[in-house]
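Deliverable D2.4 — example input (structure tokens):
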């Protein structure tokens, strides 16, 4: 049986509309985009023969945990990790193909949401999908300590490189969303040091 729970940080999702960073409608569209992202992960795990043990509702998305993750091969993990960003990329391409994509504000925002989910989740930093793809891609040939070292170093380099755009959006555009993501990834990287 799949357990569904709401993470306490879900309250952060309400801060963006309350402080005028996003509207309630934009927050809803972001949730819908995140739902398709996570639904693709769940479908990929089902294709690999694994059901979900838990689904956790987070501030801007959903996190699904598979049953018996040890039984999943590294190659299958790469496939499952790639499914979410791929779904967002496909939605982005489909929206770009619409003749109203430039003029319609909702379509433009959906383009932004799905493009951002694809780009951010594609970063090779754990626990993001890109980081999982790197880790499990390496795990097909190397042991866990080597995979952890590579992922940790990769995360440190990228976090340093991302510091300027994060500061720009925070101070110039008054948008804290990238800073929140960067802060979370920095804390995760510091604590986990490249381990899954």
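Example output (designed residues):
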């Amino acid at each position: 049986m799949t357990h569904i729970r709401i993470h306490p940080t879900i309250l952060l999702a309400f801060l963006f509309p309350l402080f005028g960073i996003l509207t309630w409608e934009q927050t809803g569209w972001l949730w819908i985009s995140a739902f398709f992202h996570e639904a693709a992960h769940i479908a990929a795990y089902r294709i690999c023969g694994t059901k979900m043990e838990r689904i956790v509702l987070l501030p801007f998305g959903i996190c699904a945990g598979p049953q018996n993750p040890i039984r999943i091969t590294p190659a299958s993990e790469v496939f499952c990790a790639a499914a979410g960003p791929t779904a967002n990329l496909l939605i982005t391409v489909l929206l770009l193909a619409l003749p109203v994509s430039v003029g319609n504000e909702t379509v433009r925002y959906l383009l932004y949401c799905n493009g951002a989910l694809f780009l951010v989740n594609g970063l090779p930093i754990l626990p993001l999908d890109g980081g999982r793809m790197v880790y499990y891609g390496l795990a097909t040939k190397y042991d866990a300590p080597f995979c952890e070292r590579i992922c940790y170093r990769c995360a440190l380099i990228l976090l340093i490189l991302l510091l300027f755009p994060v500061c720009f959006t925070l101070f110039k555009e008054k948008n804290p969303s990238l800073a929140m993501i960067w802060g979370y990834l920095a804390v995760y990287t510091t604590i986990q040091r490249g381990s899954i």
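The chain has two domains: 1-122, 124-196.
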